[in-house]
Every structure is written in C-alpha cells, then in structure tokens.
Amino acid sequence: MSAVSITEPSRRAKWVAGILVTLYAAVTLMPLLWIFATGFKSGPDSIAYPPKVVFEPSLAGYVNLFTTQTRLGAEAFAALPPPETWYDRIVRDQGMVIAGPSRFGERYLNSVIIGFGSTFLSVVLGVLAAYAFSRFRVPLKDDLMFFILSTRMMPPIAVAIPIYLMYRQLGLSDTHLGMILLYTAVNMSLAVWLLKGFIDEIPREYEEAALIDGYTRFQAFRKVVLPQAATGIAATAIFCLIFAWNEYAFAVLLTSGTAQTAPPFIPTILAVGGGIDWPAVAAAATLFLLPVMIFTILLRKHLLRGITFGAVRK
Predict the structure, then answer these.
(1) DSSP state letters, 240-289
(2) Residues in CB range of 50: below 8 A, 6 or more apart
(3) Which of 13, 55, 213, 279 is buried most, with the most CB atoms less than 10 Å from its CB?
(4) pLDDT computed for residue 204 by the predictor
(5) What's the confidence (pLDDT) of residue 43?
C-alpha cells in the first residue's frame, strides 16, 4: 500500500491546476495579443467584420502614430517626386504626405519622466517614513497611520477641482514637477503601508548588532535594513509605477501640452476622415505597455517574494 501525502498534491490535481492556469493565462493575454496584432493591420482590416485573424502585416499604424500627415490636391500629389523612404511610401499609398513628426514621442517621454520620477520619489519618501513608524516611538502613531491610509480611501478625482485651483495659483499646472508631486502624494499612503509591513518583519537584532559594531543609525539603515527590504521596495515600486503610468483623470485635467502624458493623448489619434485610426491607437497602446511590462519582468522575482514576504513566521 503506497503512502499518500496530505501536503503534496496528487498528479491529477496538478494536471487540473495546470489546465486551469493555462486557460486563465490564455483568456488574460487574448486582449493584449489582439491589440498587438491590430497595430500591424491596415485600416480596413482593423474594422473588418467578422474580425480578421489572418491578415497581411502592415506598418501603417506605427507610421501614422509617429507622423503628422496632410492631403494634397490631385495635381500637386501627382507632381511629387518618388518617395525616398519606406515610410514615405506607406503614407503615399494612403494618398497622403508627411507634414512632420507627431507629438506622440513627446507625450511618451512625459509619461516616462513623470511615471518613473514619481515612483522614485514615492519609494524614497515611503521607505523613510515606514522606517520611522516601524522603529521609533512616534506620538499618535496609530492615528497618523490611519490618517495616511484614509487618503487612499477617497477617490483621487474627488479632490480634482481643489487641486486644479491650487495648481493654477501656484503655477504648477501643465508642468512635470506638478504631476510628479501629485502622483507622489497619491502613492505615499500605499508606499508607507506596504513598506512598514516589510520593515516590521526585519528583526531589530540586525540593527542592534550593527550599532554595537560602531555603525551609525543611518549606516545601519542603509547597509542592513535596505538590503533586507529590497523585495518590499521592488513590489512597492511596481504598484506605484502602475498607478502613475496609467493615471488618466488628473492628466486630462491638469495637463494640455508641455506635460501631457500618453494616456490622454492616445484617444485623440484620428484619421483624416474624422474616424479613429485603430491601427495607430493599437500601436500606441502596445508601446505604452512596454515600459511597465519590462520593469515588472525585471523585478518579477522580487515581486513574487515581496507579495509572500512575512506570510509564514518561523
């Protein structure tokens, strides 16, 4: 008679779990794959019904995304010299000519600056505040922690009008600094609460041993606590970046040109006839997904360890 383990799942259970995880992954990834494929479709193929799964790939969506195009009269168009580049040829095939670069590159760079800048600031301030709450006797600590958490309970858009009026008076509207400070303020509650939980799990004895060896409090924090809290910092950074990267409401209300990010710009991509250029929109969405996806993949090990950190106490 073979022994049966009460902790090790059976082979059948593993197969069922594997099938369920595969189905879930397929359903979850299907919209992303469809967006990626639409970016390489032509305009008619992107709105064809029934939807086309097999199509002739085209880079028209990416060319339309990064260029501004205009239409010439029949005589002027016929008098143009032959196209010099492959993207000129794609635009000519649509009956258009390139008038210059689009503003998507600027908006994309704004998203990178504001998203990563606010994430960095949120994590730096969050880890300092979390360390203070975790290691020192702070008066009214529980009340302060609840107040910090309560700022996350209210939808950010509920304070949009006061923030708009305040930013207009301070001259922070449509500036990179203003958006970085705003996203940092929104993310601080999440960062403090997450990081405090991670730092609480780090034994105080490590720091006490470092202090006995002659380290200062800051040196013990930098050389002992920070390496131990790396998993929590990575997980917190990912969550903060996702919010700042995808945020739409404040970006629409507080920016219009200089500091406008990609989320409010992508829906404005229009074709010449007034319709939506779906391949260009899909190309923009694909490129917009890449930084967060790459950042998450690079930190995936820390993210998995950070989510489960402290779940089991020894």
Answers:
(1) HHHHHHH--HHHHHH-SSTT--HHHHGGG-B-TTSSB-HHHHHHHHHHHH
(2) none
(3) 279
(4) 85
(5) 83
